[in-house]
# Entry
Amino acid sequence: MGECIRLARQGVGFVEPNPCVGAVVVQEGGIVGRGFHSSLGGPHAEVVALLEAGEASFGADLYVSLEPCSTTGRTPPCTQAIMDSGIKKVVIGALDPNPKHAGRAIPLLESAGIGVVTGVLAEDSQRLIENFALGLQSTRPIVVAKWASTLDGKIATRTGDSRWITNKPARIAVHEERARCDAILVGVSTVLADNPALTVRHVEGASPRPVILDSTLRTPEDALVVTAAQQAPLIYCRNDAEAERAKRLEAHGAVVVPCPPQETGVDVHAVLTDLKSRGIGRVLIEGGPRVLGSFFAAKSVDLILAFVAPKILGDGSGMAAIVGRDVELIADTIDCEWLHVDQIGPDIRLIGRCL
Ligand code: AOF
Ligand code: ZN
# Structure
């Protein structure tokens, strides 16, 4: 079970709002298959471990840090995969706090003649899924704040040139993250400046639903984010925005959502609550700097996904990744911690969270 928990931790930053889960298949005292849930929407830990074990699963024991799921979600139920594999005993760390699955796996597996043991390394297994359990009650999605900057923290030159700061492998990793997310959010300034499509192109996977923060509805009807969208784009505006503009955007397939106005645009909390009510579990904030700043200011960032290129702009007028705060003292910084750091091609990927 300790090995399951160690494996599970590798999913931190990639699976939320799902839990981190690890599994091993043990045959005659030796591990013949290992797996962990490595990406939201991807296969569950047990399925990966069973696949690696192959025929060695027959008559083996499966250890898993979380009770196996028993109904179809983004993937088919693990209980079925376990029954099909010939596993004879399942050893579980924590029960699943998700009401869809809670406690259901045990009678299901037992009725198929599989032995079940629960509560092994229970405390460590519970701690592993603490955030998942809290998130089940949350009224907003997991928010991932993403940017790609030079070593001196700039995301574009003063003229707005930003292509490309990071290299292809890092840009592929961004598309992997897009595919994990249910929605992708930008400010209207990004739409006007870059006309991004915000789709998944460099990897297999469904494109997230585009979301634009656009207080006064300046999004052009022919913006790629509207015309290339696979799901109706959501445009959040102030509730005093021009009705005529809203009608025009809606005629092009967008959904316009009026929100209470705020000094800096629309209320971030209202937007997130609305996204959650529309079934968005994970949203990627792709900028620009003011939009990122407003999510940090609203203390609404769960995960940071920053790419840093080995390049120095060295021009104070270049565009900073995050703006909008007025800070005189280092004591007033937003403090973060890294959860996962790796190099992707020549660039560094930093996954972290605010403290
Ligand atoms: C498992 N093994 O590795 C994980 C489980 O949307 P889905 O299909 O990915 O299902 C997510 C739910 O399944 C999640 O809310 C939690 O209850 C459970 N997670 N279960 O058997 C796993 N990650
Ligand atoms: Zn499962």
DSSP finds twelve helices and 18 strands in the chain. Residues 44, 68-69, 78 surround zinc ion (ligand 2) (CB under 6 Å). Residues 168-180 form the longest helix (13 residues).
